[in-house]
């Protein structure tokens, strides 16, 4: 009986050690979407490219249908570099998210300063993930939001 107890204890110890060394759980799709948008707000082109698949697509949806705005990492790099040169203080955040399998539906708010002052828009977006990376993003038409009130002087 003593040797049986030793075998049971040894098996339990190995099982516990194996569980302790297990890989951490992969981030959920909504966490990946938040990380992607946060990287965008830092204007980190290389960081964004690390978070997308080689065959990334970004699409705009309208009443007329869908159009592909960006296809592939090289095109995304070119688009982002031009975008961040024009708009240096852009900030984006996800107001809310809902997960459906490997897709995340979100309301995204983007804010920046234009020549006429602070601007803000919001849009629905759908992020599709493959192997923990953004594979495709669909953007619905944006709605302009009222400009933030200017502080009284």
Describe the overall structure.
This protein has 153 residues and is α+β, with helices and mostly antiparallel strands. Helix content is 34%, strand content 41%. The chain has four helices and seven strands. Strands 1, 2, 3, 4, 5, 6 and 7 form a seven-stranded mixed sheet that branches. Strand 4 and strand 5 (117-130) form a beta hairpin. The radius of gyration is 22 Å and the shape is globular. The relative contact order is 0.16. The model has no long low-confidence stretch (mean pLDDT 87).
Tally of contiguous helical segments: 4
User: Which term fits the overall shape?
Assistant: globular
- What string, H for helix and E for strand, traces the elements in order? HHHEEHEEEEE
Structural class category: alpha+beta
**First and last CA, distance:** 85 Å
Structure summary, number of beta strands: 7
Please give the radius of gyration in angstroms. Answer: 22 Å
Mean pLDDT, rounded to whole units?
87
User: What share of residues are in beta strands?
Assistant: 35-45%
Main sheet, how many strands, which sense, barrel? 7 strands, mixed
- Helix percentage range: 25-40%
Segments where pLDDT lies below 50 for 5+ residues?
A: none
């Amino acid at each position: 009986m003593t040797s049986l107890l030793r075998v049971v204890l040894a098996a339990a110890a190995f099982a516990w050690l194996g569980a302790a060394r297990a890989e951490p759980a992969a981030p959920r799709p909504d966490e990946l979407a938040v990380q992607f948008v946060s990287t965008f707000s830092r204007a980190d082109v290389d960081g964004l490219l690390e978070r997308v698949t080689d065959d990334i697509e970004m699409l705009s949806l309208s009443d007329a249908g869908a159009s592909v705005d960006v296809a592939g990492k090289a095109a995304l790099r070119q688009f982002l570099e031009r975008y961040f040169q024009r708009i240096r203080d852009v900030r984006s955040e996800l107001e809310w998210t809902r997960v459906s399998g490997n897709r995340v539906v979100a309301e995204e708010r983007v804010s920046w300063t234009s020549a006429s002052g602070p601007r803000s828009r919001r849009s629905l977006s759908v992020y599709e993930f493959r192997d923990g990376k953004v594979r495709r993003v669909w953007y619905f038409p944006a709605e302009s939001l009222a400009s933030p009130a200017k502080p009284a002087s």
